[in-house]
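In keeping with the milestone schedule agreed at the kick-off meeting, the structural modelling team has produced records for the first pair of proteins. Each record is given below as a sequence line and a structure-token line. The laboratory manager (R.T.) confirmed that both were archived under the project's standard naming scheme.
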Amino acid sequence: MASQEERAALQVIVLGSGGGPIETNTTAFLVRSVAKQWSKGSLLAVDAGVHLASISEILEKNNGSFDDKNSENELENSRNQKQPKRVLSNGPFAGMELQHESIKANAGYITGVLVGTYLITHPHLDHISGLVVNSSSLPRNQPKIIAGLPSTISALKTHIFNNIIWPNLSDENNGAGLVSYMRLVEDKSPSLFNSEDDGFVEVCEGLQVKTWSVSHGHCVEKHEKLSSTPESQSSENPRIRAGSTSSFTTSERNLRKSSFHDRLCFSESSAFLIQDVVTRTEILMFGDVEPDSISLFPRNKNVWTAAASRIVAGNLRGIFIECSYDDTRSVDGLFGHLAPRYLIEELKVLAAEVDKLRTRDRRKRKRASDCFAKYMRRKTKTESAQLSPYSSDFAEKDYYETDSKDDEFNDSDESCQSLYIPESAPTEKSNDEPQVTPLKGIKLIIIHIKEKLDDSPNVADIIHQQLLEHERQAQLGCEIIISSVGQSLYF
């Protein structure tokens, strides 16, 4: 029997599973189409809070776990002064042919040759710092692609690769040309009216992506209003006495307060539907995200509506989503993140959308079944009489066409008109059959857990238990997995 890895279409390698504050474990993944094996440009890096260091660490753990390829030709290799090719036999990079002797050189090969694109959910440091620091080692023969929403690319271009925070390594504004920006267009069309491939963009070998923007909290910024009064413009105020314990008098504090105005700003993140081009197998990967129920700009429902149709179609297999804090965290301390109670709340929205689609499909099948039953009754009557040449020809067909002039079939059932009915039309689900939980078969991978710097129990274990309890009560049916560095997940 084929193993899960052999049957799978997508592999996800977890380079970083956390959300800080420890900088060696921040959000980062590698995704590949299994059909592309380990070919050039076949790896998609989704976020890169950590990158090269984590790849090196994973390779080091599996150092020596390889098979000699073409071992039967060792004599020929020695004559040609060639080293036998080595292929990793286990670990996340199993099946990859090692190109070098040292770990750092092989890690550089993965980053420089195998990774084709960096797909960034949003430009916060815990999602990009590895990319930025590692970017100076990128090969110069072909620029690496950095893909994301226009807001993400704008932030990277303006605030990171700007020759101040970091050199401009892009191919824009006379940069060094090591990276090239790809601005993704958000999918805003109702999924029910889309064709299967609408909105997808190929981002690397064997993988294409559909993108949505989601909300990641808000902040209130205070901006000082410009004043034309000399007093407010002067840096030296004669009313400030030398040696005073306060820089401002009470009236001056009030004046200063009134000189500020509040501006509400939103933090935008992304959700990516990543699809294997060959099999249409999909995973959904979220950046940082807040619940719709407390958001000032709720946008998750659009993602769940689209995801529901992919679940019903059997394409979507896994959802990577954050759960930064446990349920003891107060609402005002979430800062645009999820806790277990809110994550389950979001999943209930997805489950409701799945149930809605499946109910609609059952009704369609029920109508088809009713129409089929009418034809079977009519067919029984006609077969009891002598068959005419017309009915003989009709009986040889493997489907039945309705006649809009047929009074029996036309009686107050317009849904049966001009309907093609198969010989074995499906019937509506029996009430005696066990009810299928809406998210059965879906792997829910929890990411971006923020560690506590104290002696309290492991927060990941607490979050896991809280999620399991919420899921048990909600009866969603999904498998909940806590991500960890070095994990290899197949879909």
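The second protein of the pair:
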Amino acid sequence: MMKQKIKTPNWAKNLTIYEVNLRQFTHGGTFKEFSEHLPRLKELGVGILWFMPIQPIGEKNRKGTLGSYYSISDYTKLNPEFGTLKEFKSLVEKIHKQGMKVIIDWVANHTAWDHHWTKDHPEFYSKDEKGDFKAPVKDWEDVIHLDYGNPALWDTMISEMDFWLSETNIDGFRCDMAHLVPTLFWNRARWMLQKTKDIFMLAESENHDLLEYAFDSIYNWKLLHAMNETAAQKINAADLLTTVQNELEYLPEGAAHLNFTSNHDENSWQGSAIERLNYFLEPLSILTFTIPGIPLIYSGQETGNYRRLKFFDKDEIDWKADKMTSFYQKLNDITKSNEAVKTGELKPIKTDAPESILAFGRFTENDSLIVFLNLSPKDISFYVECGKLNGQYRNVFNDQAFEYNCHELFSIGAYGYLVLVKG
């Protein structure tokens, strides 16, 4: 198995990432207004705030009224709709004072049609047979493809990334469609940027090669797809557990998956987490927080947001609902306080209902985590394997003592769960 050669910053381990869709977050969609949410996000228990692209959006071939975040017209400027550089620097400082970190989205594969490089550096772009700029793929008509066959592009792009580290003191990057850009570029970028400060880098990709020298974490899309199939009752609990184990088995040592039930792409194009997962949302969310990896919460998920947010137009989140804040707080609490959740290896627990009950434990010398998820529409009673698991635990969701006894029948209601911790 490949071993990760880079060193993930200690602060980045076991922190929940919160994806910030700034334009939809408040009425004005500004840095100033967003800062009012910082105490709430701190209380929610998240540790890293990932901002979708904060740069200006191209006007040529723009989609919708506001355009795509991912059609960038200048890498080192700010979208004036969000605020000024001074306001963003102030926001980063406030986030750090709350004990949280900041990463920003980086779109290295393409730019807007009216990016200033189209005039200053047309050689940075791929061309069609007529010598004209071209979109990367058919559906992305609002952007044009960069040509990484040009070494000068590498140095310029890395310099633009370093601007944000040096000028604003952010803590890293989430890199859009990272697998569409040469791995060697990312390796060089990490090496160069690391000279400025210790950073965390997340790749929107499943490519394990990116983890050796460039990225700390990649997307766990296979898990997401398996959870969607579980909710559609196309696969069962045993199948889902197999997916979890397979993905962990092939992950390079030292690296981490990003585990999620939603993000901006899934919400806008495939459906909100509630729309896709329905009654399975809570047990599957628990899965993403309790298996090894980094959990993600998308803007508004903590409210129990039931709808798709518009991607190219204004569509403010309704913060009045507060259906799942306590749920996510409890999950964030154990990811930070329980050593088994931080470092324990995943160990499946055998039951006599494997098609309905997904069961596993994670253990360290002093701490334990045991998870039972009923991934069926029926109440299930079941027996569990014996071993060294018997004893007193705390039920995470009602904070009461729980006596684990393998000789007694366990019962969990439809779509229910039991999460136990010790230590």
